[in-house]
Design goal:
Distance between the termini: 37 Å
Order of helices and strands: HHHH
Strand content: under 5%
Number of strands: 0
Length: about 80
């Protein structure tokens, strides 16, 4: 939300992870008093995710916990 407000760019949820990591690195650099160059690429906009953003901001987004049995079953098929 901070990035969207400051930069005027609504990132896709996937790109938001990169943005958060960049924020975390910037905070760590500030706390260590060590300048850094931080590069990230938010490759998608979130225009297709507007309904999800609207649900989140209005408090209507419901948490979903994927069933543990299905996760375990999927993990068994991984090499």
């Amino acid at each position: 939300m901070q990035f969207a407000r400051v930069e005027g760019i609504l990132p896709a949820p996937e790109a938001a992870h990169a943005i958060r990591a960049a924020f975390d690195e910037a905070i760590a650099a500030r706390e260590e008093d060590r300048p850094r160059t931080i590069l990230f690429l938010p490759e998608r906009h979130g225009h297709f995710d507007l309904s999800a953003y609207e649900a989140y901001l209005s408090g209507k987004l419901q948490d979903y916990e994927h069933p543990g049995a299905e996760i375990a079953e999927a993990m068994e098929s991984l090499p």
